[in-house]
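Friendly challenge for the regulars: who can give me the structure tokens for this chain first? No prize, just bragging rights.
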Amino acid sequence: MKKSIFRTEKIPYTEESIQNYDFNSSTNLIFKNHKTHDNGIARGRKYSLDTVIKFSIFKGYTIKQIIETDFDYFLWFGRKVTNFTYDEKVLNYAEECLTKLINLSNSRIEKFPKLKYLKNQVRLMLKYEHELDFGTNPHSKNGYKLMINVEEYEKIHNKLIEKLIKQYFTKLSYSNEFRAKYLKELKKNTEHNTVYN
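First reply, four minutes later:
Bragging rights claimed.
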């Protein structure tokens, strides 16, 4: 039996795990009990696409999954955590995903009816999931569910395009211009083997 594209379980709201951190005078984040440190010594290493993160709300996620789920958080790690750098494959994959995110926000999307349609379908799925998690009216949830073309949605379910469209609608910390700027800084720092502060 084929698994449904519709989630039926509520996802409890998750907050950032309690961390013992502070800011210095230049507002750089200082971690006191952070898992990227061993006995107070920062781990100077490069993270690959398959590296599993052991801290934050993304504990248990690989770097690849974080890029696909929350590009802004991916950028934050590399910019704010001391000695947290990425290997070349990570940066190339991030650039590929950022290009797709930029294309999703391009006003010329009207010329691509298929992509426009998929964006609308993912938007409806997000509304369905929001009603499932927070709504009080089951008719609204069922209404959104009925508006989704299951046959078409199955083609993108759990694929990169669905993840990026969801991110397009839900992750608004940085503009695409700032994302490109910060990614360029990460690439430059990797080339020079330095850390951005």
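The chain has one domain: 41-191. The mean pLDDT is 82. Your move, everyone else.
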